[in-house]
Design goal:
Elements (H helix, E strand, L loop, with lengths): L1 E3 L8 H12 L3 E5 L27 H6 L2 E6 L9 E5 L7 H4 L7 E3 L3 E5 L6 E7 L6 E8 L5 E5 L4 H4 L2 H14 L6
Parallel strand pairs: 1-2, 2-9
Antiparallel strand pairs: 3-6, 4-5, 4-7, 7-8, 8-9
């Protein structure tokens, strides 16, 4: 299992090839939060490109996750963002959902990531709605297109990772990635 939770890093060209081959091989990938731009160079500003001998992967969001990351809603001034995510009705029989140790909402207290141009092949597991604009956003999904076996979730701050709900979600995702062959 590859667990990917990094932001704007530039592995060596050789290491990037290994990472891409792993993802495209169908081996399980658990991608958390900033994995949507794990190896992406910033589009704004100068001088933030991969150094010689290293590689950027600016389209990892589309290529691996199946959706384009466009930014996030920031925490409100004076306190954290309070958004509850729910299990999508279409995902109630998904193995990840069936292995969860909870059945209530997941609270997202930091940035709510936004994604556009979602591939119809992805299966959304959890969604959330930000009260300011009433738009529904996917916050956890799987992508099995082209033989991949990728689970992604946008909650991933230290506060969110510490909750029993997120721990259960990650455990269920790993079991799904391994086809339930692990304890």
């Amino acid at each position: 299992v590859l667990i990917l939770s990094t932001r704007r890093r530039f592995p060596t060209t050789e290491d990037m090839a290994i990472i891409k081959n792993f993802i495209n091989s169908g081996k399980p990938v658990i991608a958390i939060r900033t994995a949507s731009h794990a190896f992406g160079a910033r589009e704004k500003g100068e001088g933030y490109q991969a150094p010689e001998g290293h590689a950027a992967w600016n389209t990892i969001d589309v290529d691996m996750l199946g959706a384009k990351y466009t930014g996030h809603y920031k925490e409100k001034e004076g306190g954290p963002l309070q958004v509850s995510a729910w299990i999508e009705a279409a995902a109630t029989n998904h193995p990840i959902v069936e292995n969860l140790d909870f059945d209530g909402p997941i609270n997202i207290v930091h940035k709510l990531y936004t994604y556009i141009d979602r591939d119809p092949a992805i299966q959304i597991i959890l969604s959330a709605k930000w009260a300011e604009n009433e738009q529904i956003h996917p916050v956890a999904w799987t992508n099995e297109k082209g033989g991949k076996r990728v689970f992604y979730m946008s909650p991933g701050s230290l506060d969110e990772i510490a909750t029993p709900e997120i721990k259960s979600l990650l455990k269920s995702a790993v079991l799904w990635g391994l086809n339930g062959d692990a304890d």
